[in-house]
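does this look right to u?? glutathione version
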Amino acid sequence: MTLTLYTLDWVPDFPRGFVRDLRIRWALEEIGRPYDTATVPSHPKTEAHLAMQPFGQVPIIKDGDLILFESGAILQHVTQGSALFPDDRRAEITQWLFAALNTLEMATMHWQVMLLAQKFPDFFGPPPAGEVIDHAFAFAKTRLDAFERRMADREWIAGEFSIADIATIDTLRNVASEDGLAEHKALTAYVDRATDRPAFKRALRDHMAHWQAADAARETETA
Ligand SMILES: N[C@@H](CCC(=O)N[C@@H](CS)C(=O)NCC(=O)O)C(=O)O
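got this back:
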């Protein structure tokens, strides 16, 4: 059955490499499931997009008649029963997937959005005071420190490589891009190990090719 992955039609340079369709591409590359891509407009949001994703975000997938959003739910759906999410490790992997999204990413994103506001105030609105940003990082760091302890003596977060690693790594890559992992040797090694996987490299290549094609399409439109 054809699987369609929806991402945005275009984004500026700064989020390229981090838009969350990447984590779905990565999982699909790992399990060797082919997929098509489709786009929704970044701005303004359309009714068709909001009908699929009420928050106007991506990723979204269409798998037969099923339309699904939220990257964690999509990761579970597309990999269920595979080596990335086997039935006999379902509970533990789900636990760490939720920890990645709801304990780690919710804290690091809060800090990162403030950093983005510092760099791109026109896009994200005026940035908060420096001490507010420091406070947000201190909060995120408590979570990073806990993940650092977890990863000190293991290769992957929940036994063999799984969708919990994909979600965790995608968040940690974001943190690393803002120099937020300077004190976290185990996490830095974990990111390096994961992003060295051929499936990640293929997913990133295709993700970046999508934005290049989007640039070309915009140039043709404005010519
Ligand atoms: N919790 C959601 C977050 C989705 C999300 O933040 N998507 C971003 C791209 S990475 C987005 O669509 N941003 C555009 C917007 O919010 O308008 C998930 O994991 O799928």
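The pocket of glutathione is lined by residues 19-20, 56-59, 70-71 (CB under 6 Å). idk if thats expected tbh
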